[in-house]
Write a structure and sequence with these properties.
The chain is an all-beta fold. It has two helices and 17 strands. The longest helix is centred in the first third of the chain and has 4 residues, at 48-51.
């Protein structure tokens, strides 16, 4: 990890009082640990070759990036959107079917068969990531969760944080977070976007406490909101940087999303078990 600059929030200790560390990646190795991360973005709707992320490992960090010559990940269903993303699971139905994780468009059909995998799909817990994003219109970064979706109704989304470069400056950033229902009849859309006095291009710690009846979101150890609903099934994590056409600011490439660490904890007190 690189040294601290003014405005950076320092890393938290690995051990967290009252919790057991269940899953983590400090990104200190020479290559991405594919026992923890599936290095493609929703490849069932595209193909692994096109859904492969651009990334490097540098200074003990994962750096997801959009490069100048990067191509759209799924032009058939998502237009000119470019994405570099990794995830902790993958599920898809048969070739040509409508079944698969995060069916973001009714036009989506499985274009490439996948070998389904659950690398880390918890149910409830405390999760945090130390990261820094990019202040550039057209780019946004996110840590989010989706249902494993082995049943269509298990398709809710939790956005731990989502930062649009167009809504970020050196003085403040709009930090999106909350729930999107998608195909889950037991959820409702509840997405919040407060402006916080942070520079999202510096290091900050974004966290979620996922409880059976509500969600608690925090930034740099300060709770920013509570959402009074909670998906009741295993979910997987997505770490993503996007570039959306139409509002792209000319500038230097690559556009980068730095991740120092991702950590997942289980409370020591009784809670429903994970997977």
């Amino acid at each position: 990890m690189e040294g601290l600059s003014p405005g950076d929030f320092p890393p938290n200790p690995l051990e967290k009082e009252g919790y057991r560390l269940e899953f983590h990646d400090e990104f200190t190795g020479p290559r991405l640990d594919t026992t923890k991360w599936f290095p493609y973005y929703l490849p069932q709707w595209s193909a692994r070759e096109r859904a492969r992320p651009s990334y490097i490992l540098r200074d003990g960090c994962l750096v997801l990036q959009i490069t100048a010559d990067q191509q759209p990940w799924c032009p058939e269903f998502d237009g000119g959107v470019k994405c570099s993303s990794i995830q902790t699971g993958v599920f898809a139905g048969p070739l040509g079917s409508e079944f698969g994780q995060h069916r973001f468009s009714p036009a989506c059909r499985v274009r490439e068969a996948q070998e389904n995998a659950r690398l880390y799909t918890p149910r409830y817990g405390y999760f945090e990531m130390r990261a820094k994003g990019v202040r550039a219109p057209g780019n946004h970064v996110a840590l989010w969760m989706i249902g494993y979706e082995d049943a269509p109704e298990r398709s809710g989304e939790i956005a731990v944080f989502e930062i649009m470069g167009a809504h970020a400056s050196a003085e403040a950033a709009r930090v999106g977070h909350g729930v999107r229902r998608w195909g889950d009849p037991n959820l409702r859309d509840e997405f919040l976007e407060p402006f916080l006095p942070i520079d999202a291009a510096q290091w900050h710690v974004y966290a979620l406490e996922w409880l059976p009846d509500h969600l608690e979101f925090s930034v740099d150890g300060v709770k920013i909101s509570t959402v009074g609903q909670s998906p009741a099934y295993p979910m997987q994590f997505m770490l993503s940087i996007y570039e959306v056409p139409g509002d792209i600011e000319s500038g230097e490439y690559p556009k980068q999303f730095w991740v120092d660490y991702f950590r997942a904890y289980r409370p020591l007190r009784d809670r429903p078990s994970g997977s």
